[in-house]
Specification:
By secondary structure, the protein is mainly alpha-helical. Helices cover 65% and strands 6% of the residues.
Length: 163
């Protein structure tokens, strides 16, 4: 089976394209997230802070969907943000099964300072592509991202145009 895939034109092209996509993703991500070393944050921590900054307090479940992390991983991320006094969890009285994650004042100050720099670095890193190339890449990524579980419920936190 393995040789059949490699020997078929579409299989060979799919494998080659996947490798290129993976390498490009790793390179761009490394370049974009290098500045996080100075702030002492991980990519996941930045993702949580950014989601809370732009979306307000959220349940752990909603945060996990937004930043594409498992509940177990997100628990560790939020634990560490709490240790840094950047976020805190609160149990709502109406549903004690959930936690709502909030930014602290220190967390809000940090992400409001860090996010514009992060956005500028992304813009610079992606800026070597022209507007048409960025649109095409966006379209292709959106198409790839739609290959999700067809039985999964839609995420109310994502707008259709974001996909």
């Amino acid at each position: 089976m393995q040789n059949e895939i490699r020997e078929s034109p579409i299989g060979s092209l799919a494998l080659s394209t996947y490798v290129k996509l993976s390498r490009a993703t790793e390179t761009v991500s490394t370049n974009i997230h290098r500045h996080l070393l100075e702030s002492g944050l991980t990519i996941s921590q930045l993702g949580v802070l950014e989601a809370l900054f732009h979306g307000g307090p959220q349940t752990m479940c909603d945060l996990g969907r937004k930043i594409l992390r498992s509940t177990a991983n997100l628990t560790t991320v939020v634990d560490n943000l709490e240790k840094l006094d950047l976020a805190h969890r609160q149990r709502p009285e109406e549903d004690r099964r959930q936690f709502i994650v909030h930014l602290t004042d220190k967390g809000r100050e940090l992400i409001s300072r860090l996010f514009p720099l992060h956005a500028a670095i992304i813009t610079e890193e992606m800026g070597f592509l022209g507007p048409e190339e960025l649109e095409e890449l966006s379209r292709i990524c959106r198409k790839l991202g739609k290959k999700e579980d067809p039985d999964a419920a839609p995420d109310p936190g994502h707008r259709p145009e974001d996909r």
